[in-house]
Specification:
- The chain has about 350 residues and is mostly helical.
- The chain has one domain (about 5-10, about 20-335).
- It is built from 16 helices and 5 strands.
- It has helices at about 5-15, 25-50, 55-80, 90-100, 105-120, 135-140, 145-155, 155-170, 180-205, 205-235, 250-255, 265-270, 275-280, 285-295, 305-310, 330-335; strands spanning about 135, 260, 305, 320, 325.
- β4 (about 320) and β5 (about 325) form a beta hairpin.
- α2 runs antiparallel to α3 (about 55-80).
- The longest helix has 27 residues, at about 25-50.
- The chain is globular and about 60 Å long.
Length: about 350
Amino acid sequence: MSLIHEADRLPWMDRVKDFEGGAWQPALIQIADTLLPYLACLTLLLYGAKAGLPWWIVILGGIPTGGFLVRTFILFHDCCHGSFLPNRKANEALGFVLGLLCFTPFADWRRSHGIHHRTTGLLDDRGMGDVWTMTVEEFQAAPSAMRFIYRFYRNPVTLFVLGPFFIFLLVNRLPSKGAGKRQLRDLAMHNVLLVAIGFTLCLLFGPGPFFLAQLSALFFGGFAGIWMFYVQHQFDSTYWARGAQWSFLDAALVGSSWYSLPPPLQWFTGNIGFHHVHHLSPRIPNYRLEECLRSIPELGRKEKIGIIKSLGTISMKLWDEKSGKLLSFRSLRDRASPPM
């Protein structure tokens, strides 16, 4: 059964379309205020590392550089949805270039991310562009080796510390399941150009300075990006359903969070905290998400998740189909323990 009734959603749904589609002026402003600072910060890190700055200063410099990298990824993400610029070819060309900066192939990620949008919250079709989530019943029935792997995967160190390097340096170098010829060609060109750019920078700055500077930015940017993606769908009252019970609107408005961040963090993350609005209409560019939210009161009725509350989502590991909640391993263990 749908959690959102037709009578509640139809009167305002058409108004969302007013905010769809890209525009040149705000897009060009974002390109300037994002790419120029990112490239400037990365260049300073490279020169600083080459000049012999202490390694810890270079690593700390990766924090602001990583912040601009997160914002760069948001622009790339909008290009994948065809929403950043008003022209399809321009979105594709810019998306490919931004993908090089973000260590993410454009065509393959666009395809897998599109699948994520079409299947978010669908228990029967997990595993593409989402955080691996098992149900309570699946976990309890799984062999001990699988339960160990799942616990290891859901460990915060695995997700947020090892995750940035694993995803952006390894997973994104390989085609996703079901990738076609177009995605394979794009991925091959992406990988070749990445190697060429990396080799050139190694010649200019030296391998040590290059890897120290680039990996510092990639770690902090990847850490923040993975955290944002995690919080967007991994919270206690999120939404999962099976088969005919699944609803696209429920997945968007119930199963996608409103992550309320301070203005500076909201800017660096490109308004993606308004994730319920984004999943309702991926064609809305990041620079119009807040405007859409403020203009349609029905979208503002969703409960916000603040930074403090979001920290509690780290312990939520398993989807309980009976209660419709994400549970922690501890709560599952406590529930199974007989009362004293």
